[in-house]
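Before a colleague's protein record goes any further, I have to sign it off. Thanks in advance; the entry in question is below:
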Amino acid sequence: MKRRDFVSRVIITGGAVSLGIGCRRKIEPLSGEKEKNTDLLNKPTGRTIKEPEKQIPILAETDVLVIGGGPAGTAAAVAASRTGAETYLVERYNHLGGLWTGGLVLPLLSTHAVDKNKNRKQVIFGIGGEMSKRLTDLGMSINEVNPVVDPEAAKYVLEEMIRESGVKMLYHTWASNVIIEGNTIKGVFVESKSGRMAILAKVVIDCTGDGDIFHLAGDNYDVMNYAIGLNHRLGNIDRIDSKKPGYVKMNIGGPTPLKSVNWVNMWGKENQDALDVTNLSKLQMDYRKEIWENVQKIRQTPGYEEVFLLDTASQLGVRMSRILDGEYRLSLEDTMTFKSFNDVIGISGAWTTMLYKGKKIPSKERPFWQIPYRSLIPKKTDNLLVAGRCFCFERELVEDTRIIGTCLVTGHGAGAAAGLAVKERKSVKDIDVRKLKDLLVQQGAWLG
């Protein structure tokens, strides 16, 4: 049975949602074609168990439901709520910001790029720009280009923006399945300490980073293995004594808004599967051990005795996993040639050197690039939008599409589109892109 056929059996009733998935527990070995079907479940034991049918309470019926409170999800929720749409935001951790905060990936990258006159300028505005300015005003951001922020301050700022915009926030909650009628997503099942519940919505936005929602809905996608790391911070950096006999320069990362604290980026192991929980668990343990032992070596080096491990990131540094097969696949060529889209929802910039037509193009020479609305729209599932590192793009563009700045832009675009769709009672595929662009400009976005 295909996933889409499975979830299509959801019946929405007056007081509950029920699934026809059997009424008795039964353990049975897999054989034949069942062993080949790895889409539904990773089966390390080769056995399955049937879950009994039960009535699932509906927690809420809302206009817009955003799954994932990273940079994309926070921007999407704020944008949607500011249109007047009732908006719920579901986040599995205890904070907003995703890898930007909990992952200690502190630079807001790709804020600047080169225009057609070869002038380097700021390109990220809108809700992402507002977040950045608030952090600067608090003294919790350093550097004008690709600013580095304090993670606790960023958690506070993002949550204040959620609170001010009227978003209904659910922390400690994990999306576990989708509710589909035909080709239209009607809501999401969530799991928490309160048990299994359903949230019904007119529009759902997948900001999980790993494309969990469009995967569960049965949309097509590509999977890209990439490097996974684990960042950490060091304290007492301002107490390092470089004049002490025996002092040698050590890797202590880069500065943050707190003079005593540095953040240390870890590239990690290459070609890692971010969708394999056993792999993620092993990496978590290996990296924590590696970080601890490395910090002890630093502390044993003359001049570094007072340096200590302040914290390790609460989230593994997953850079890439699923990539949506959407209505338009953004290409590296698009981003290098100032390609213009009539459905542009935002602009992103450049932060690193990219290989283009056999040449290395440094960030200071790379053009700003537009992101089309179509790249956020799945081909199969109606009333579902995708924002963050898993929207539709070519693999060659991974270094630009996965970073914080781009996530903020795609999130803002998706949230505004969802709010407009609700307001006009249309599918997200049928909204007037001219009205969408006008709305984004009203919300402070720059479209080039």
Q: What stands out?
A: The chain has three domains: 3-53, 59-224+321-442, 226-318.
